[in-house]
């Protein structure tokens, strides 16, 4: 690796500077940091080898059990995964903001012309709702008048003669 200068600079791993025929062997957390938010890369779930990591302390260190408890709590709570996701998000946000600056230098603010379609749909919806409202009022007044006419009619009296 040293003879062929195969070491990688992390800044060159952006989408522009990558060799598309390359495979990377790194820790899964580093791969997730660099490529986790991207759909352009596949990160294998298989492990090439497992490297346990620990904290070295002096035997007479006063807070060894306390540090062990804290490390276990961090691991069980998933704070390491959350920290990795936050770092990945910041990393990709930085990359995409640089990419967006290069791609779209002349941005402009929204104008009424940009929102014209939205306003057309809004006014069509308001017109339809107003039409339905007027039909309901007309329909209600017609049926109310029919009921009132039926209530004010004099009842028919039937007399039976003997």
Which helices and strands, and how do they pair?
Elements: H1 28-35, H2 64-77, H3 79-103, H4 116-151
Helix pairs in contact: 1-3
Let me know the largest β-sheet. Answer: none
Head-to-tail CA distance between termini:
127 Å
Number of helix segments? 4
Oligomer: single chain
Mean pLDDT reading: 77
Q: How big is the Rg?
A: 37 Å
What structural class should be given to the helix and strand makeup?
mainly alpha
Order of helices and strands: HHHH
Strand content: under 5%
Low-pLDDT windows of residues: none
Morphology: elongated
Q: Report helical residue fraction.
A: 40-55%
- Tell me the total number of β-strands: 0
Protein name: Ionotropic glutamate receptor C-terminal domain-containing protein
Keywords: Membrane, Transmembrane, Transmembrane helix
Transmembrane segments: 119-139
């Amino acid at each position: 690796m040293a003879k062929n200068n195969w070491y990688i600079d992390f800044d060159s791993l952006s989408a522009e500077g990558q060799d598309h025929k390359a495979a990377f062997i790194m820790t899964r957390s580093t791969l997730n940091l660099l490529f986790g938010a991207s759909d352009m890369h596949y990160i294998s779930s298989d492990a090439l080898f497992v490297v346990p990591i620990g904290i070295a302390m002096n035997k007479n260190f006063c807070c060894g059990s306390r540090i062990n408890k804290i490390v276990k709590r961090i691991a069980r709570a998933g704070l390491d995964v959350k920290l990795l996701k936050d770092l990945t998000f910041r990393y990709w946000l930085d990359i995409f903001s640089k990419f967006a600056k290069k791609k779209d230098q002349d941005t402009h603010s929204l104008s009424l012309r940009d929102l014209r379609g939205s306003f057309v749909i809004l006014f069509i919806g308001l017109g339809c709702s107003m039409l339905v409202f007027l039909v309901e009022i007309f329909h209600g007044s017609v049926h109310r008048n029919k009921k009132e006419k039926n209530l004010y009619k004099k009842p028919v009296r039937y007399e039976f003669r003997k």
